[in-house]
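User: quick one, sequence for these C-alpha cells?
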C-alpha cells in the first residue's frame, strides 16, 4: 500500500475556515475511502487544529508543513471551498513527486473556483500537476482518472476542442485592429492597481515586462489612498449618486442593524467610494482600475462590489473632476474585480474593440462557480457568479431589474451592497488571458446566456451565494470536463453581442487583436 499525502489550503479568516470545514471534511472522507479501495493510504500531512478545522491558513504555515513532507511522495491538494493558493504554492514549487489537485462538484462552497485558481497559479509557476473534480469522488470519470494518476503520475484529459487561432479578418476589421494596436503602442495606457495580489491570486498578476511591449503599464496605487479619498467625499455628493441609482430603479434591501443588514449609511459610503474611484482613475490617467477590497479595506469600508458594477456600465452616474468637467461621461471605466490583471487586459481590449464595432462594451469577469443540467433541458448549463464588477447592462431589466443586498457578514464585516441580477439571455463571447511558459495566452470561445425557469434560477441562486449576480450560460462546443481540464483560472471574461453573426465577428476580431499584440490565442469549441 502506497502512502499519499493530502494537504488543504484555506482562507485567512478563521470564521470562514470554521464555517467551511464540514464540506471539506466530507470530501476528504470520500477521498480517503476511494483511495483505500484502490489500494492506497491517503493521509493528511497536517492535523486538524484545536480551533476545529484542518486548513492551512497562511503562507508561513504552508511552508512549515511542506518542510516535513517527503518531496518525492505523491501529493493530493483537496479543495472543497475557496482557498488562498499562496498558502501552498511555495511548497508545491519545490515538490518533486506527482501532484493531484481535486475539487468537489458543488455550488454551495466554491471548491471548483479555488481549485481553478490553484491550477492557474501552478501553470504560471511552471509546476506540473494533474487535476480531477467530482460530486461524489466515486464516479467512473473520477475513478478512471485517479487510476491513471496512481499508475503514471498524470491524467490525460480531452482537449480536442482546442485549436490555435489562425483565422483572417475582413479588411474593415483589420483596420480597426491596427488602429487599436497603434494607439496602445503609441499613446500607451495604464492599469490602476489598488494593491496587487488579492487573496493570494498569483495567477492574476501579469509581469510588467509582458505588458510593456503592448503599451500597457501599471500605476500601483494603495487602497489607503482610496480609503482617504472616499472619506473626503461630502455627503451631498454621495446622496446625489444614491438618488440617481434609486431613480434608475435599483432596489436596495435596507435594514437598521449594521452587523447584519444593508444600511443607508453603508450605501452612502459605497457612493463615496464610487466618486473617489472615478476621480482617482482620472487623476492618474488610468483606463482601467482594480480594487482588491480584501484584507484591509474590507475592515474599513463597505464592499466595493456595487461600485465595480457602476464603473463597468456606460449608463452610470456622472462624476465631476476638480475642474468641474464630467469625467468620461457616458463611458464605462473598466474595473477588474479582485485586481485580476488578466481580466484587466482582456477588459481593455474588449471595451475598445466592441466600441469600435458598435457592439455592447460592458464586460465583466465571473467565477466558474458550478453547473449542471437543469430540469427540462438536455444541455449542461454553467452557473457563472461573482460578487462584484457585473454591470447592470448584463442583468435582465438593467438597473430596474437589479437589486442590492448586504454582502455576507462572514466576508464583509463593514457591510455594503451587491449589484445582484440575473443575466439576460443573449449571445456571448467568453475568454480568459493567462500565463504559461512565461508568455501570455488567451482562450476564447462562444456561447449563450440562457433563461431558465424562475424556480430553477431561485434554486441555483440559493444553492450558491444568493446576494450575488449570476449568469446561466451554455458554452458552444465545450463540455464540462473539457472546460475544467483546460481552464487556467477561477475567472472567465464575458461580453454580449447583438446577434450570433455579430458575436462571431467580435470573437474573431478580438482573437486577432490579441494575437497582433503577441498573445498566443486558442479557439475553444465553436
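Assistant:
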Amino acid at each position: 500500500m502506497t502512502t499519499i499525502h493530502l494537504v488543504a489550503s484555506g482562507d485567512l479568516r478563521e470564521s470562514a475556515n470554521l464555517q467551511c470545514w464540514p464540506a471539506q471534511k466530507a470530501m476528504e472522507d470520500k477521498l480517503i475511502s476511494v483511495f483505500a479501495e484502490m489500494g492506497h493510504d491517503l493521509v493528511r500531512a497536517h492535523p486538524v487544529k484545536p480551533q476545529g478545522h484542518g486548513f492551512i491558513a497562511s503562507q508561513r504555515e504552508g511552508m512549515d508543513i511542506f518542510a516535513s513532507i517527503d518531496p518525492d511522495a505523491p501529493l493530493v491538494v483537496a479543495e472543497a471551498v475557496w482557498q488562498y493558493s499562496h498558502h501552498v504554492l511555495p511548497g508545491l514549487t519545490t515538490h518533486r513527486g506527482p501532484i493531484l489537485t481535486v475539487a468537489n462538484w458543488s455550488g454551495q462552497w466554491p471548491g471548483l473556483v479555488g481549485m481553478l485558481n490553484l491550477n492557474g497559479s501552478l501553470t504560471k509557476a511552471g509546476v506540473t500537476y494533474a487535476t480531477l473534480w467530482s460530486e461524489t469522488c466515486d464516479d467512473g470519470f473520477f475513478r478512471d482518472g485517479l487510476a491513471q494518476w496512481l499508475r503514471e503520475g498524470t491524467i490525460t484529459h480531452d482537449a480536442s476542442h482546442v485549436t490555435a487561432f489562425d483565422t483572417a479578418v475582413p479588411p474593415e476589421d483589420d483596420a480597426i485592429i491596427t488602429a487599436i494596436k497603434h494607439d496602445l503602442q503609441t499613446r500607451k495606457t495604464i492599469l490602476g492597481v489598488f494593491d496587487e495580489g488579492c487573496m493570494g491570486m498569483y495567477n492574476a498578476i501579469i509581469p510588467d515586462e509582458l505588458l510593456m511591449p503592448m503599451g500597457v503599464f501599471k500605476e500601483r496605487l494603495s487602497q489607503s489612498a482610496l480609503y482617504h479619498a472616499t472619506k473626503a467625499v461630502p455627503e451631498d455628493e454621495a446622496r446625489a449618486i444614491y438618488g440617481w441609482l434609486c431613480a434608475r430603479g435599483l432596489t436596495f434591501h435596507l435594514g437598521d442593524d449594521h452587523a447584519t443588514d444593508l444600511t443607508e449609511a453603508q450605501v452612502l459610503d459605497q457612493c463615496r467610494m464610487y466618486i473617489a474611484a472615478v476621480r482617482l482613475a482620472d487623476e492618474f490617467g488610468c483606463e482601467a482600475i482594480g480594487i482588491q477590497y480584501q484584507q484591509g479595506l474590507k475592515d474599513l469600508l463597505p464592499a466595493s462590489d456595487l461600485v465595480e458594477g457602476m464603473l463597468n456600465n456606460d449608463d452610470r452616474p456622472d462624476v465631476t473632476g476638480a475642474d468641474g468637467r464630467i469625467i468620461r461621461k457616458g463611458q464605462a471605466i473598466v474595473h477588474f474585480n479582485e485586481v485580476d490583471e488578466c481580466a484587466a487586459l482582456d477588459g481593455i481590449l474588449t471595451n475598445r474593440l466592441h466600441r469600435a464595432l458598435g457592439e455592447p462594451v460592458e464586460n465583466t469577469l465571473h467565477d466558474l462557480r458550478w453547473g449542471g443540467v437543469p430540469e427540462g433541458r438536455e444541455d449542461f448549463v454553467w452557473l457563472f457568479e461573482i460578487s462584484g464588477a457585473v454591470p447592470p447592462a448584463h442583468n435582465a431589466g438593467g438597473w430596474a431589474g437589479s437589486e442590492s443586498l448586504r454582502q455576507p457578514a462572514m466576508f464583509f464585516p463593514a457591510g455594503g451592497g451587491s449589484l445582484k441580477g440575473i443575466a439576460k439571455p443573449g449571445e456571448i463571447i467568453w475568454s480568459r488571458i493567462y500565463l504559461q511558459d512565461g508568455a501570455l495566452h488567451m482562450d476564447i470561445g462562444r456561447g449563450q446566456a440562457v433563461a431558465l425557469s424562475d424556480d430553477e434560477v431561485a434554486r441555483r441562486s440559493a444553492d450558491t451565494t444568493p446576494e450575488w449576480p449570476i449568469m446561466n450560460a451554455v458554452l458552444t462546443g465545450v463540455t464540462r470536463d473539457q472546460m475544467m481540464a483546460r481552464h487556467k483560472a477561477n475567472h472567465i471574461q464575458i461580453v454580449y453581442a447583438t446577434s450570433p453573426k455579430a458575436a462571431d465577428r467580435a470573437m474573431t476580431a478580438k482573437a486577432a487583436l490579441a494575437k497582433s499584440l503577441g498573445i498566443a490565442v486558442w479557439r475553444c469549441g465553436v
